[in-house]
Write a structure and sequence with these properties.
Layout: E1 3-7, H1 13-22, E2 27-33, E3 44-47, H2 56-60, E4 65-69, H3 77-89, E5 94-98, H4 110-120, E6 124-130, H5 136-139, H6 142-146, E7 149-150, E8 158-159, H7 164-176, E9 183-187, E10 193-194, H8 195-206, E11 211-212, H9 217-226, H10 231-245, H11 255-260, H12 267-274
Parallel strand pairs: 1-2, 1-4, 2-3, 4-5, 5-6, 6-9, 7-11
Antiparallel strand pairs: 8-10
Helix pairs in contact: 1-7, 3-4, 8-12, 9-10
The structure holds NADP nicotinamide-adenine-dinucleotide phosphate (NAP).
Domain NAD(P)-binding: 9-178
Pfam families: NAD_binding_10
Protein name: SDR family oxidoreductase
């Protein structure tokens, strides 16, 4: 029987990739957004806001499987817990949670608190714990990359970049195949690279020089503020890049390959696929 999959964060990086993947499955895709764009792969768009419980009923009606993310903008774990309870109450069967690599080792992390609540909710759960998305290089750092610079304070630390399209592909599999219930997937790319190595790959593929400048933390924060990013965001990013600088972001797993039966995309493939967006004027 065709199942209905509810995709929260459907306009976001992973949600968009997931919708594109679900086209190949026998599933009705209900996509949520605060202001539905109504385009791209999805059978139905619904207006939805975690902070507005009055929007939850229409989103959850007759849903079999739920893709749950914690929006970076919304920090209230309590609301997500209530939403999970509502999903369990109306008979949703499966829930794939977009978490973050290392969540299992950090009980205070909001993602881990959401995971634990989902595990206790009665829903069949799968946790996806991705490393740093390769897409951050275009979505967050695209402007400076096009100007020939990667300016993040990660030192010589390695990062096991994972392509968000692979995260979307794993999500699609786990949402439609009950065989993944009760499992957690640590999602990384096939290799861990320093940002100097990323800059070298970018230069090679894009055809213009890209330099890794490794700014100090204060300089990075000031740069982010100049780009109009909020202080809280700049501090969170500083924390993430410090994790990389300390050598804690380089763990490589084969979970993408295990679930999908193919290799994860590497950073070179990412630049080849996104070269059109990263061309210099
Ligand atoms: N970036 C990384 O490298 C990385 C790595 C590992 C894990 N993660 C985790 O991945 C998650 C983010 O995923 P992403 O990058 O795919 O998202 P994203 O591109 O940042 O997009 C955020 C999504 O959340 C939705 N959203 C925002 N506020 C909302 C609200 N109040 N109610 C309902 N939806 C709301 C947005 O939709 P509308 O505004 O259109 O409604 C949008 O679709 C975070 O939990 C992050 O910690 C990120």
């Amino acid at each position: 029987m065709t199942e209905t999959v509810l995709v929260t964060g459907a306009t976001g990086t992973v949600g968009s990739a997931l919708r594109a993947e679900l086209v190949d499955y026998d599933a009705v895709v209900r996509a949520t957004a605060q202001s539905p764009p109504g385009d791209g792969p999805a059978d139905e768009w619904v207006t939805f806001d975690f902070e507005k419980p009055e929007t939850w009923g229409a989103a959850l009606a007759a849903v079999d499987a739920l893709f749950l993310l914690r929006p970076p903008e919304a920090s209230r774990v309590g609301r997500l817990r209530e939403f999970v309870d509502a999903a369990a109450r109306v008979g949703v069967e499966r829930c794939t949670v977009l978490s973050v690599l290392g969540a299992d080792r950090n009980p205070l992390l909001p993602h881990r608190r959401v995971e634990r609540h989902v595990a206790a909710s009665g829903l069949d759960w799968t946790f996806l714990r991705p490393s740093f998305f390769t897409q951050n290089l275009t979505e967050v750092h695209g402007e400076s990359l096009r100007a020939g610079e990667i300016a993040v304070p990660a030192g010589d630390g390695e990062t096991s970049f994972v392509d968000a399209r692979d995260v979307g592909a794993v999500a699609a599999r786990t949402l439609t195949d009950p065989g993944h219930a009760g499992t957690a997937c640590d999602l990384t790319g096939p290799e861990a690279l320093t940002y100097s190595e990323v800059a070298a790959v970018a230069s090679d593929v894009l055809g213009y020089p890209v330099e890794y400048t490794d700014p100090s933390l204060p300089r990075f924060v000031v740069g982010e503020l100049r780009h109009g990013r909020p202080l809280g965001y700049a501090l969170v990013m500083s924390g993430l890049y410090t994790t990389a600088r300390l050598g804690l972001a380089g763990r490589v797993t084969d979970d993408v390959g295990r679930v999908l039966g193919r290799d994860p995309r590497d950073v070179r493939t990412f630049f080849e696929d996104y070269a059109g967006e990263l061309g210099q004027d």
